[in-house]
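Data card: per-record layout.
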Amino acid sequence: MRLFFIRPALALLLSFAGCGSYAAENAIRISQQNIDNLGVNLSKPKAVSQIPVLSAPAKVVIPPTREYIVSAAQAGIIDKMNLAIGDKVAKGQILAQLNSPDLLTLQREYLKASTAQQASLINYNRDKKLLEEGVIPDRRWQETRSLYNSAVSETDEHKQLLEIAGMTPGEVNLLAKTHQLTRQLNVRAPITGVVMERLAIAGTHIDMMAPLYRVANLDELWLEIAIPQERLGDIKIGDRVVVENSDISAKIALLGQSVNPDNQTILARAVIEPIRPTGSASLRPGQRINTRIIQPSNKAAFKIPNTAIAWHEGKAFIFIRTPEGFSVSPIVLVGKQDDESIVSGDFSGNEEIAVNGAVALKANWLGLGSGE
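The structure for this 372-residue chain is written out next.
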C-alpha cells in the first residue's frame, strides 16, 4: 500500500481547486478567503536609489602619513619605557628616557659655541662704534662682522643638533642659562595617537636611530579591497563601500594598476568617511572584513524580501495584487542584501505584492492545484 503526503499549502490549493480559483498565463484569480487561507501577506516594494554591485573582502589599514616609527636620536641605555601597546599618547608626551653620554658632548659643544658668540658680539659692538667714529677702517669692520656672523651660525648649528637629538627649545634655552649638563634624553611622541607596537626593552643599550615605538593616529583609516580583475569594469572611483553588519561606510579613492599574481585581484582603496557614525570605532587596523560596493541606480529599483520572489525556468517573478487576485510580473535581480533583493521590473512601487506565500501562488499559477 502506497502513502502520499501533501504539503499544507498544496492541500489548501486542492481544497479550493473547484471553488472559483484558476490559473491563467500571467494572472491568478483567487478569492480573499483563499488568500487568507494560504497565509499570503502583502507589502509595497521599497524604492532604492543605490544598488549593491559587488561583495568583496577588505583589510583595515592605517594611512602611511599617520603612522610613525619613533627612534632614539642618540645612542645610550634605555632607562624607562613609559607606555605599553594600546596606550593613547599626546603629541610631545615623553615615551621613553635614555641615558646618553653622547648628549653630553653635544651640550658641551653648544655651550662652547654660545660662549664664543658672546665674545664675538662684544668685538662686534666695539668695532661698530669705532667705525661710526672714524677710528677704524671699513676693512676691519667687515672682518669683525664676518667673524660674528660665523659665530652666530655655529651656535645655531649646535642648537639644532640638540633639538634633533631630542631636546626641546625650552630645554636648550635652560641649558644656555644654567650651563648644567644632563645625560637624560627624553624621547617624545611626534603625534597624538595610539601606541601600536613597542620595539625596545628598558635596561638595554641601543644605537643611534634604533626604533623604540610605532605610533599611529587612527582618526582616519583606509579599506584595502580585493577586486576580482574580471569585475574591475564594474567599479569606479567614488563608489560607496559599506561594511557588512555595520553602519560604517567609505568611498573608493583609488583603483590599483597591477594585478596580484597569487589571487588575480586588483587593489581598491576606500577612505572611511571622516564623520563616522556610532559604532565605527569597532574597526581595528589589520582587521579583515567583508564589504559591499554600492553605486547609484540609473533606473527605478526596489527592495523586496527574498520570500516574495518565485523562480520558474530560470526566471524570477513576483505576484502583484489585483482586484481579481494577482498578476504575475517578471523581474530582473540587480543586487542582493542579506534576506532582501534589489529588483527592477514593469511596476511603479505603489503596488502591493505578495511577500509571503509566493510558493503557494506559484503552484496555483502553474496549475499544480487543478485536476488532482
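Known properties of this structure: The longest strand covers residues 288-305. Residues 1-24, 276-280 have pLDDT under 50 and may be disordered.

See the next section for split statistics.
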